[in-house]
Every structure is written in structure tokens, then in C-alpha cells.
Predict the 3D structure of the following.
Amino acid sequence: MSVRCCGGKMRKNNAQKCVSPLHFFFNGSKLLIEFCNRTDKTAMSHPYKTREGGATVTVFVPYDCRNHCPFCINKREYADCSGFSVEAILKSIAVMDAITPYCDFVFTGGEPFAQLDDLQRMLDAVPGTHKVYINTTFPVQPGCSAEEMLDFTRRNADKISCINVSRHLQRYVEESPDEVVGAIATPTRINCVLYRNYPSDQLTAYAERWRKYDIPVQFRYDYTETTPENLYEQENDRILQDLKRQFTYKGLDGCRMRNGFHFDYKGLHMTYHKTLPYSTIVETGEDGVTYDILYDLLIKQNGELQSDWTGEPLDVEKYRRVVYEPYDLHVIEGIVDF
Ligand code: SF4
């Protein structure tokens, strides 16, 4: 979804026009962020660089969800299932594991829990060196009960770092009961897209809903609206101001690509997450070389490897020669100790 909730991501058609949105640098002990409006039409033609451990690999499962969230752009990718292949996805997982054996994998959709047998095959293909995340609605679906899905989480509790369950303030998906979400056997997080005219007066009740199960919440901004200029903008960010009024603001961390504003509500950790609608930054390093700095790689439903949410193919041979840099995620203000 231009907003990623269960994995969908919204994106702008010309998302790559600005290629170097942020620069982080230290002046003494103070982290400064410099905005750059440089436009580089040669984006995606440079050597690859990524963070130590490797870029996150997002796997689009070859199964659709049963929902129609208004902010979703993934839905159209599931309209035509020809070419979708678990076998091809398994091969691409093996390629990515061989290049970056410690990167994170995210399974998204569509709906990963739509076909448990195939999800099991894909999970089994990811060696234990990787962290694995699943974005899901934890759906109500025919032929597969909530208890079967919970059993799946129990059997795979050692393989899954976190299951992110979409539960929005406005109800767009058919929701299994909260008690079912509370019984998931792995660490769990709620993803909540705050879309357009969301009812801000319901935020506190919403936090109480998940505090009951001690499940942290990640609120999400409409990614189609995120730009390098407003990524770190605070005063005119309605969502941020609504959250600051109702919860205790703790601090901000972030990198060139995305950030998180952290809140506490009676011991419940909540984050407000913003990210750019693309995942490659073009930047010239201290070595004088201009790199495509990759944050997210994609394995599509047909196994195709892509280097960005914008549909750019991944040059696998070039990625085998990727240069690594320390992860540029920093605490920018306050305390982030959750
Ligand atoms: S639940 Fe389905 S329709 Fe809604 S955002 Fe996720 S993939 Fe899109």
C-alpha cells in the first residue's frame, strides 16, 4: 500500500526524481540532518551500496488477500496471477541468502496466511541466520480456522521474529477477534495506517484496545504523501501533533529513508512510522564514487528480484559486489530505549 500495512506499499509514479533526500552528519556530538534537492537522472546506474548485513528482502507471496483497503496499490498486482510461482520465489530466496546471509526477510502480500503450506515452505527456505517478519491481516478465511493459524505460529515461533498484524482505526479488513491476535505465539505488532480524515478522537481508545494484550502499535503515514521535505517535518504533521497531544512523546530515530517517532501510553510502546515511497538513495561517498544505496530489495510473486518499490530490476551480479556501510539509523532526539 502506498501505505504498507500488510505489506502493500503506495508509491508515486515518478518516485525517483529526488535521489538524495537527506544527509546525516555529526558536528561534535550533535547529529545534523541536511536536506538536499539534488536531482540525479542517472539514478539506478551506479555501483550498489547497502548497510552492513544487507538490504531487507521483502517477499510478495503469490496469494491475494480478501480486502480492498483504499490506500492499497498492491491489489492490482494480484489481479492477474499468471506467472506467480512459489518455486521461483524459493530460488530467489536462495540467491539472496547466498549474497547476504544475515539480511532481514519480510513476507507480505496479498496475504501470507492465505496458504499455510506454501508459507511453511517459504519459511523453511530461510536459514536461521536471518530475522523473519510477516505482514498479515491474520485473516478470517474459509477453510482455515483461527486455531489452525495460531498452531502455525506455535510451530514456527523459533523462525519468526515478529508478526505484524494490520488493524486500522477505520475498519477496512474483516478482522479476526482481538483475542485471536493476542494469542499469536510469536512477538506481535499492530500496524495501523492513519489515512486521510481518520477519527483522531478514537486514538486513546485504540491504544487501550491493544494495551489490554500488551501488543505494541505502529501508526503509519500515507507513503504516497511522504517526501524528502516532509519526512522529518514536525509542526505541520497532523498525525504527529495528534499523537503528541494524547500520548507521551519519547524520542525520534531515523535514517535517510525512514524514521520513527516513539510514544508511551501507560507502558505501551507506540511508534509513528514514516518512510519515503522508494528505497534507493543516490549519493557520492567519501571515496568519490557515486553509489545507489539500497534499503529494500523485493522478490515479486513470480520470483523476479527488484532493487526498489518502483519496479527497478535488481542486477544480481552487481549486488554480489555490493559495498557495505554502517547502518545510518540514529537516535535523533529524546530517548529511544524500547
Ligand atoms: S489487506 Fe490487502 S487490500 Fe489491504 S492493504 Fe493489505 S494487501 Fe492491500
